[in-house]
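User: Last request for today: this protein with adenosine-5'-diphosphate, please.
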Amino acid sequence: MKYHINKYIGDMMDIFDREMARSSIFLDRNVLSPHYIPDHLPFREKEIEKIMKVLAPALRKKRPSNLFIYGKTGTGKTATVKHVMEKFDQAKEKYNSPVDHIYINCRTHNRKYQVLLKMVESLYPGENFMGFASTHLYDRILENISSKDIVFITVLDEVDQVKDIDDLLYMLTRANDHIEKGHISIIGISNNVTFLEKLDPRSKSTLMQEEMVFAPYNAIQLKAILAERAKLAFREGMCDDSALELAAAYAAQESGDARYALKLLLKAGEIADESGEKVTDKHVKLARSAVEEDIVVDLIETLPEHPAIVLYSIAELSKEGGRYAKLTGISREVGDKVLFSGEVYERYETLCTKWNKKPRSARWYREYLKELEMMGLITITMSGKGIRGNTQLIRLAYNPEKVIAAVEKKFE
Ligand code: ADP
Ligand code: MG
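Assistant: Here's the final one, the structure of the complex with adenosine-5'-diphosphate:
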């Protein structure tokens, strides 16, 4: 018996040893992570310069304008601003300037209160302000900035996520009118400009004293960005140049998103590494479908409850085959995935009852369909007069099993 256990443990050790002895194609996969900030940001020299110009007066105690930066996801806005803030800190040390700054990601701090809390906590390190009213936080922020007579640069990344943004901007503007010494400057960043339309005109003019747009990268630029990272991420000769080119081309199609390009490369690297191969086009293609699935799972994660149930109904019916194929005699392969709007609504009602939710009206249901279509999860066409009058035909854009699993995970 003892012998067997020892032998068993011996075999296990072999697996670990082999794992450790196996040389990975990666040198350092961290440089492909979304959190890694490269020392050098090619193709953003002009943007870096412009942000520095806006901030430079602060070093001499002059009030810099507020700046609003926008552009699509993955165009390097966050990386560029963080890069500039690092330089700014260095200049502050060098010239002993009365400035300070804070970076706040509003996706995780999406209320005025939370933003003020972050600000006050950074001005009074070690003090706890949880539970104090926002007017108290506001007073303490002003007191600090004014007594030190500093310019306080507040970076609000993904600023469109702040639910009570008008209140926040109003409060920060008012702060500048109220303090005798010192100043608060805002750098707002957003992936989405449509939120500006909903903004109070006063907030808008506060936020946009200066503005700049980050343009999407083209395929050549993305290739260069990837090549620079690949040098650090992979062992020599472990990543084909054409694989980088392909990943760049895919990402250029996805609105020039460098984050997507890096995600593809990381995934391709992981797939190649598992089978001990170098990264080639094949792995980038595999990575593309894997990453797309991840994105769908993330999308589903953010869906409200009822649209998620509608999506689930569509996925179940696509798996079982809807009435359309039976009615039209179209081959099951083609027809099964086409669903009548009515049958989806019936399934939705059934599922709501089963899960103890009150089903929403058909009017709401049509809104949910529109939402799902806008997110690219389904496509909607009209049937034309021949079939059942003129009804909406619905088709799931992704694999039903994957969608079902993602919704179930969400409701877990
Ligand atoms: P955004 O904030 O515009 O959505 P990010 O700044 O987060 O985009 O950039 C996405 C990813 O792409 C990050 O990992 C970032 O390091 C990388 N990246 C963006 N632009 C560049 C660039 N010019 N050079 C190198 N890496 C870049
Ligand atoms: Mg960003």
